[in-house]
Amino acid sequence: MAKTKEIKSRIRSVSNTKKVTRAMEMVAAAKMRKAIESVLRTRTYANLSWETVMNLAHSRNGALTPHPLLAKRKSIKKIGIILITSNRGLCGGFNTVLINKVRDSIVKHTGADDKEIATDFILIGRKGASIYRNYGYNIVADFPKPDLTPEFREVSPVVQMVIDAFLSHTYDKIMVAFTDFVGASSQVPRIKQLLPIEIGMKEAEHFGIMGEDTRVGIDKKFVEKKEKEHLQYGTFKYEYIFEP
Fold first, then answer.
1. Is the domain of 179 the same as that of 219?
2. Could you list the residue ranges forming a coiled coil in this record (predicted)?
3. In terms of domains, do 173 and 122 share one?
């Protein structure tokens, strides 16, 4: 009799645990959907904004006095990297793959004396601190990272910091390392040069994958259509899509 009660008690316990787990799964799924929608909603604007920057840079190409943010340095002595990671673990190789890619990129690009170029890190996200623990790189700033897509006022201090550092010649290049969302089970680590702005960036260096599926990136035909609608008027072609 006691054994029967014990079995029934265990069944109830397992059933209750199942209900709690199911509720947690539903909450996690809702958060995941919200995060994905947030990412994809901003990607088109981010990519087209980058196209605008490239267009403006192209219009300044060959000028006698190039814009300071377009000026290449004769030698690269120091690099600043904005490393964007997650705040929490338990996400497989999400952060590890990105950090390893950054490390490999630094090792591959050496200076004139075949030594690693001096590199400082600006962290966004708690897990980026492992770049110091594992490799000993210098961290000059650590900014909090919201779990969802931040507003401009939250990233503005980072932007101002890297622009000031580049213009003051503290860094000769500013890079950003981030994970590009492709799908729930697929993320691609990317490293992109922000400053100086160079003309002729490849499609793969956009902020997000440009593909045929508008749910994943932005559709090339869509971009071409919008360019014809908004950038051309007869033989005249406007220089940008958005007000800079």
1. no
2. none
3. yes
Residues 82, 190 within the same domain:
yes
AA identity, residue 181:
F
Label each residue of the chain as H, E or C.
Answer: CHHHHHHHHHHHHHHHHHHHHHHHHHHHHHHHHHHHHHHHHHHHHHHHHHHHHHHHHHHCCCCCCCCCCCCCCCCCCEEEEEEECCCCCCCCCHHHHHHHHHHHHHHHCECCCCCECEEEEEEECHHHHHHHHHHCCEEEEEECCCCCCCCHHHHHHHHHHHHHHHHCCCCCEEEEEEEEEEECCEEEEEEEEEECCCCCCCHHHCCCCCCCCCCCCCCHHHHHHHHHHHCEECCEECCCCCCC
Per-residue pLDDT of the chain (244 residues; tens, 9 = 90+): 557 878 888 888 888 888 888 888 888 778 778 777 777 777 777 777 877 877 777 777 666 677 888 888 888 889 999 999 988 877 778 888 898 888 888 887 765 566 778 899 999 988 888 888 888 889 999 988 876 666 778 888 999 999 999 999 999 999 999 888 777 677 788 888 888 887 655 543 444 433 333 333 445 565 566 556 555 545 544 444 444 3
Which domain range does residue 117 map to? 73-195
Residue 202 lies in a domain: no
- What total of structural domains would you count in the chain? 2
Whether residues 191 and 226 fall in one domain: no
Assigned domain for 2 exists:
no
User: Residue 166: which CATH number?
Assistant: 3.40.1380.10
pTM of the entire predicted model:
0.70
